[in-house]
Structure formats: structure tokens, C-alpha cells
């Protein structure tokens, strides 16, 4: 399928700005890692806010975008 050809390509990146060499992973694997990391960070943020007695907002991008685009009353 042509629409999925980019998923099979290699993504070159430096894990840190100080590295003088590039790493490579299949695009799909790196994308999966990004989603996994984002989910973990969201859970940590929610746990931290809850631990200090603060309400945790909806951190999912879908909810954030809906709130931002909600018509103002």
C-alpha cells in the first residue's frame, strides 16, 4: 500500500543534542515509542498533581483540542 510506505522507512535521529552520531529506527517503532513516552509522562503528571491535592486536567490531546476550539459563550 502506497499510503503506508513511510511507516517502513528508517527514521534517523540523535538521541541527545550532544551526540555526534545518528541512530536509526523504523519510523513505526519510533512513533510507537513517542506515544508510549507521552502516555507515561501524562500518568506521572496526573499522579504528581493528585499527590499535592490539585485537580488533574484532561491531558489527552483530543480533549485539549476540543476545549481550545469550543465556542465561547
Reconstruct the topology from this structure.
Blueprint: E1 10-13, E2 23-26, H1 27-51, H2 61-68
Antiparallel strand pairs: 1-2
List the quaternary state of the chains: single chain
Overall number of strands: 2
**Which stretches of 5+ consecutive residues score pLDDT under 50?**
none
Shape label: extended
What gyration radius follows from the Cα positions, in whole Å?
Answer: 18 Å
Q: Please state roughly what percent of the residues sit in beta strands, choosing from under 5%, 5-15%, 15-25%, 25-35%, 35-45% or over 45%.
A: 5-15%
Major β-sheet strand ordering:
1-2
Q: Termini distance? A: 45 Å
Sheet of most strands: 2 strands, antiparallel
Any idea how many domains?
Answer: 1
How much helical structure, as a percent, in the residues?
40-55%
Order of H and E elements: EEHH
Mean pLDDT, all residues: 80
Number of alpha- plus pi-helical segments: 2
Helices and strands: which structural class? mainly alpha
Walk me through the structure:
This protein is mainly alpha-helical and 73 residues long. It has one domain. It is 45% helix and 11% strand. It has two helices and two strands; from the N terminus they run ββαα. A two-stranded antiparallel sheet has the order 1-2. It is extended. The mean pLDDT is 80.
